[in-house]
């Protein structure tokens, strides 16, 4: 079974403090097998691009959805 690459949305107090201080109320993080792999992205499009990169690195190719 291959690795799972997901995007987690962080809201409110789950947003890192340095981003909350800048007024960011929501961010996204890329997870590989449930572990934070990269980022704290302030927009979903960047998180999705990172997710695709991980999928390519892990040999999963591109998926839609």
Task: Describe this entry's structure for a reader.
The two termini are 20 Å apart. The relative contact order is 0.23. The radius of gyration is 12 Å and the shape is elongated. It has 65 residues and is an alpha+beta fold. It has helices at residues 17-21, 44-57; strands at residues 5-11, 26-32, 35-41. The chain is built from two helices and three strands; from the N terminus they run βαββα. It has one domain. The longest helix is centred in the C-terminal third of the chain and has 14 residues, at 44-57.
Low-pLDDT residue intervals, each spanning 5 or more residues: none
Give me the count of strands.
Answer: 3
**What class do helices, strands and sheet pairing give?**
alpha+beta
What's the mean pLDDT score? 90
Global outline: elongated
Whole-number count of domains:
1
Individual helix count: 2
- As a percent range, the share of strand residues is 25-35%
Walk across the major sheet and give the strand order: 1-2-3
Radius of gyration, in Å, reads 12 Å
| Major sheet characteristics | 3 strands, antiparallel
Secondary-structure element string: EHEEH
Distance between the terminal alpha carbons, to the nearest Å?
20 Å
User: Helix proportion of residues, in percent?
Assistant: 25-40%
